Amino acid sequence: MENRFERNFIIDNNEAVLNIENAAIFLGISTATVRNWVKSGYLQTIREDAKYLFHRKEVENIKSRIKNGDIEKLNKRANKSKTNKTFIPEEYIQDGVSFNELNSIVNFIKINSVSLLPALLLIALNLLKKEKILLKADIQDIIQKKDLFFTNKEIEGEIKPWILEIESEKIKEEFSFLLDCDIPQQRDVLGFLYQSILHEGEKSQSGSYYTPSNIVNEIIVNYVKKDSKVFDPCCGTGQFLLAFSDVIENPLNIYGIDFDKIAVRIARLNILIKFKNKNFIPNIICKNTLLEVGNYDLFSLKDKSIKDFDIIATNPPWGVHFSGGDLEKLNKFYPEIKSLESFSYFLKKSIDLLSEDGIISFILPESILSVKTHKDIREIILNNSQIIKIVYLNRVFKNVFTPVIRLDIKKCKGIKGSIQICKGDKNYFVKQKRWLNNQDFIFDIHADGVDAKIINKIYQTNHTTLKNRADWALGIVTGDNKKFIIEEAREGFEPIYKGKDVEKFVLNKPMNYIKFLPEKFQQVAPWQVPIF
Ligand SMILES: C[S@@+](CC[C@H](N)C(=O)[O-])C[C@H]1O[C@@H](n2cnc3c(N)ncnc32)[C@H](O)[C@@H]1O
């Protein structure tokens, strides 16, 4: 195997480079696993833009680290929370055309090791100059912390403490590129750059994957009116808030909270720039929405009537690991959420903060629809709202593998009507009442009205179910089918069903054979003797 590998590398800048197939052969894994290792940060490509080309040294290094036991369970799920890798969230750019220009700014920041805050400050000042809010500033003015002249007092109030906070030696003469470069027209350039510089580990810890603008825009078009009172309870740098402000006339009707101080600073600046001709203090603050922002009735910013939002829209964090102390408080504040899932806390909190007939639109992982753990929040949703629409979006975030849905609900009690399901080019309605009767309140979006009728009919006739009559388990993921699976019967091998052997109503004859070596496979179901 290693000989085959020896013959198959190319040379780039005097360094041997492997393509994905050869890297897979050398490591003894499938190309799909190589892709996963790249996405999870274990394996580095030669450059960010060189998809699946690897320096031979990098691949050899990984191989010897696996051999030495330095990397345990590499073939299991990567622990993203520890990666120092950064990545550029291409999906956050509106037109795709600006990618190269934005990428060159990110590269400048990385190559020159510009720290996060100075980098964002210089880009912010650059934007303000282009908007004619900052009259003039060169790099020496910033290094020497000279007085700058702004046409907008609120923006001046946001920027001045930022400049004072940064040690002068962190800003160098050669960083003037950031202060003067061309910045493409984008809704949230600062947010994009912040996401691109932030380490993947930090992003995954707080669930900070910002939402692509096309997804946000659709929500706004569907629900927001010019006098709506709107809220993003975990607003990040303000993608949703900026989209709201395309329709809403009074910036004081736009509310946002996030516990990330830098993100809030950017969000405030974004809104102030958007409404640069108005005098106002943005209703965007740095708090922990789940723990600090009221215990429902204690909720207060500056506005006591803040509770009654017309629309709450966001992409809440998913799967956040809470500390013991926080968990204790969360259990006290939200006793009905047993799953300890961050998006469920955000949903519950948002339902409470919404006005009667108000609308929630959340971007969520598909798992909310059917995974048993989430039955708590499904029951709360079914009993407190009419689900208006579920849109199946599939994968939308680079580096997040989970399929994604959009869930739109209207707060109300009483009789429930129909839910619109949008899945690719399919568009149909299902009755919410049916879901209330489903086991674990499963939102079975894949069964349309006809499917539901067939299932009901089957249940109404004499029937037997598999309950207590069968064991089941997830099958085998070998990690490399070519290596472990053969197509003819051989001593020591046993027949195995692949997904494609299982058809609707028919189990085909198995055409593949495997030697059962669970310790060598990427994933296998626990080995148990079935009890009948
Ligand atoms: C997936 S991002 C969404 C940002 C923005 N709403 C968007 O869609 O682009 C989730 C955000 O939730 C914030 N967050 C996580 N837990 C929070 C909490 N308990 N209170 C406030 N913000 C929180 C993170 O800092 C992050 O900015």
Rg (C-alpha, Å):
27 Å
Tell me what the CATH architecture of the largest domain is: 3-Layer(aba) Sandwich
Alpha-carbon distance between the termini? 45 Å
Strand order across the largest sheet = 6-5-4-7-8-10-9-11-12
Instruction: Estimate percent helicity.
Output: 25-40%
Poorly predicted runs are: 1-8, 75-82, 295-299
Strand tally is 17
Q: State the CATH class of the largest domain.
A: Alpha Beta
CATH superfamily of the largest domain: Vaccinia Virus protein VP39
CATH topology of the largest domain: Rossmann fold
Strand content: 15-25%
Q: What hetero molecules are bound to the protein chains?
A: S-adenosylmethionine
Structural class: alpha/beta
Mean pLDDT: 84
How many structural domains are formed by the residues? 4
Question: What is the approximate shape?
Answer: flat
Largest sheet: 9 strands, mixed
Total helical elements? 20
Mind explaining what this structure looks like?
This protein has 532 residues and is α/β, with parallel strands linked by helices. It has 4 domains: 77 residues, Arc Repressor Mutant, subunit A (Orthogonal Bundle), CATH 1.10.10; 91 residues, no CATH class; 249 residues, Vaccinia Virus protein VP39 (Rossmann fold, 3-Layer(aba) Sandwich); 69 residues, no CATH class. Helices cover 35% and strands 16% of the residues. It is built from 20 helices and 17 strands. It has a 9-stranded mixed beta sheet. A 3-stranded antiparallel beta sheet has the order 1-2-3. The protein has a 3-stranded antiparallel beta sheet with strand order 13-17-14. A hairpin with a 2-residue loop joins strand 11 and strand 12. The radius of gyration is 27 Å and the shape is flat. The chain starts with a helix and ends in an 18-residue tail after the last strand. S-adenosylmethionine binds next to helix 13 and strand 5. It comes from Candidatus Staskawiczbacteria bacterium RIFOXYB1_FULL_37_44.
